[in-house]
Amino acid sequence: MPLVRISLMRASQGNARQVADAVHDAMVETLGIPPDDRFQIITAHDPEQLIYDRSFYGLERTEGFIAVQITLAAGRTTQVKKNLYRRMAELLQERLRVRPEDVFVSLIGVQADDFSLGGGRAQFAEALPPHLQALQQTEQ
Length: 140
What we know:
With 140 residues, this protein is an alpha/beta fold. It has one domain: 2-Layer Sandwich (Macrophage Migration Inhibitory Factor). The protein is 35% helix and 21% strand. The chain is built from 4 helices and 4 strands; from the N terminus they run βαββαβαα. Strands 2-1-3-4 form a 4-stranded mixed sheet, covered by helices on one side. β1, α1 and β2 (40-45) form a beta-alpha-beta unit. α1 packs antiparallel against α2 (78-96). It is globular, with a radius of gyration of 16 Å. The two termini are 21 Å apart.
């Protein structure tokens, strides 16, 4: 059950749902999460509230910058993460003409029992869903 936070410029907020859809579709395709496992928070910022270096690490970023932070159960391989980053940038470029250089992604891996889906319970501590069971099997 990833929790996704998307930060973008206020001028881009008209496309917020489409950005969220592209991010979610990339996660379904590359991480194997169920299509209905969708929890996203979108925040639109004024330019002085979304601060980023326009040329860090040799990339040229524009005012189309989007930051995506995903908290998810730990255990994905480096290759799976690379696939996610690539697919997310591809979908955002295809659907919204977002430059891949403007897509910043940060993953925060946590234990499955660090989530409560509601009701005051730690559902994943009680029973893991199939896509998380598969992660545990690849670790062993």
